[in-house]
Design brief:
By secondary structure, the protein is mainly α. It has 17 helices and no strands.
């Protein structure tokens, strides 16, 4: 039975123990993140006030930009498992301090601190996941096994949502910090036990120590910005990502206003967040496994690239028509299920059409510049909207950003074929008669020409 499951999942002989280790580790990491997200949002919205959420977006954007630069500069100095262990310990200590302050002090600042702690920690945990996998699997293994490993993380998120929904009404929402600490402790033990037996990550190569690391990180960002001038695909992709981020965070603000008004206590809100996380996470996993690849194969990457902006427009239209719980749940489904199922895989495929030596710089542009800028813009728009009599004006801004997101995705589609053609022409002689086929021919003809 185990061998049949391994064959079905493309796990080769001798890889089962390693895959089980990764699945277990990322299951606990994902479960902890689900607990942290639901608890931090429920406490912040109920005890500090959802009206301060736009300011949190702006502060988070500054923190993410700064931490991403520092992380990129120093991550290659340590084996990835050692960095993970340090991150687990620091995060657990911070959570314990936050729990103590929430339990035994009168200050309300612990709740925005917990919110920001989750936002930064979740970003680092996810970014470092890719680094850790790269240092432990060869490239051919990584392509086969990464989807399975990420499925383990998603199952952890689903389980964490169920745990949050069942435990928070009885134990109290702030005590979810202690449960997250327990999950971090298990993650620490698992990674320590594995590497005590297996040694340092086999593909770790220590970077050169010195003050130049930070400089090199900033240089990579600068080179990425210069690349935007020459690569139309990267330029359109960056604008698309910017408007997507603004649209997603304004949508998050809108649905959270509805949830906060609908559920009177932090316990009921936290339990609802747990159920919502479990359901949307399960649906995202189901769609990713059964539909995403088939839709890309049958309808092409360009058509699938339109799905998420179109569903975002529908979500905003529903909220404008009826600012109610059903519309908010549909908005959450769009944000938590359809975005990871369609937007993220499609964006990865588009980025892979860039020359391999430039993909890292393109990623630096996205993580360090575009995403924080979009988050800050969303925060500013929402703060301005709070000063206007009709608070629904921010929905109009979100809808406009969704339309812009759709338009720039169309521009990405047009630039995609030209980017592939440009890269081919640098490596091969491409006859002039074939250029029109690349840009205007049907999909089967284009594939035949590329293969030839």
């Amino acid at each position: 039975m185990l061998q049949r499951i391994s064959d079905l999942l493309l796990i080769k002989q001798g890889e089962q123990h390693q895959v089980f280790y990764f699945l277990t580790l990322f299951f606990f990491v994902g479960a902890g993140m689900a607990l942290g997200r639901g608890a931090s949002e429920a406490l912040f919205f109920k005890r500090y006030g959802i009206e301060h959420l736009p300011l949190m977006f702006i502060i988070t954007s500054v923190l993410l930009c700064s931490i991403s630069i520092i992380y990129a500069a120093f991550v290659d100095r340590l084996p990835s498992e050692k960095f993970y262990k340090i991150l687990f310990v620091v995060l657990a200590a911070s959570l314990l301090g936050n729990w103590y302050a929430a339990s035994y002090t009168a200050t309300d600042l612990v709740y925005p601190a917990f919110f920001l702690l989750y936002e930064v920690a979740s970003e680092l945990l996810l970014i470092h996941c890719a680094v850790y996998v790269t240092q432990n699997l060869v490239q051919t293994q990584s392509k086969r096994l990464t989807p399975i490993i990420l499925a383990g993380h998603q199952i952890g998120v689903i389980s964490g949502g169920v745990l949050l929904a069942t435990a928070s009404p009885y134990l109290g929402v702030k005590n979810m910090m202690l449960l997250w600490i327990v999950l971090l402790f298990f993650s620490y033990l698992i990674i320590r036990y594995w590497h005590a037996k297996k040694g340092v990550s086999p593909y770790f190569r220590a970077g050169r120590k010195g003050s130049s690391n930070l400089k090199q990180s900033l240089e990579q960002l600068t080179q990425g910005m210069k690349l935007m001038k020459t690569s139309r695909l990267l330029r359109m992709s960056s604008f698309s990502l910017l408007f997507m981020v603004v649209s997603v965070y304004i949508l998050a603000y809108a649905v959270n206003i509805i949830y906060t008004e609908q559920f009177e206590t932090e316990e009921s809100l936290s339990a609802f967040f747990g159920i919502l996380t479990a359901v949307t996470g399960a649906l995202a996993l189901f769609i990713q496994l059964l539909f995403t690849n088939r839709l890309i194969r049958d309808h092409g990457i360009k058509r699938v690239n339109y799905i998420f902006p179109l569903t975002s427009i529908v979500s905003y239209s529903l909220l404008l028509f009826s600012f109610s719980l059903p519309a908010a749940i549909i908005g959450s489904f769009n944000k938590e299920t359809l975005m990871p199922a369609f937007a993220k895989p499609v964006r990865n495929i588009f980025n892979s059409s860039l020359p391999s030596q430039l993909q890292g710089r393109a990623q630096a542009i996205s993580v360090i510049l575009v995403i924080p800028l979009g988050l800050a813009c969303a925060g500013v728009f929402l703060m301005l909207a709070q000063n206007v009599e009709n608070i629904y004006n921010f929905l109009i801004i979100g809808l406009a950003c969704s339309v812009a997101f759709l338009i720039f995705n169309g521009e990405m589609n047009q630039a995609y074929a030209r980017e592939i053609l440009s890269n081919l022409k640098k490596r091969l002689f491409v006859p002039d008669r074939q250029l029109n086929n690349f840009l205007h021919g049907n999909q089967k003809d284009v594939i035949k020409d590329i293969e030839q």
